[in-house]
Amino acid sequence: MFGGCRGAFAEYACAADTSIVAKPANVTFEQAATVAVAGYTALQGLRDQGKIQRGHNVLVNGASGGVGTFAVQIAKSFGARVTGVCSTRNLDLVHSLGADRVIDYTREDFTAGSDRYDIVLDCHASRPLLACAGILAPTGSYIIVGAPGGGLIGPLRAAVKAFALAPFVRRTLTMMTAKPNHDDLALIADLMKTGAVTPVIDRGYRLDEVPDAIRYLEQGHARGKVVITVA
Question: Phi and psi (nearest 5°) for 10?
Answer without folding.
Answer: -160, 160
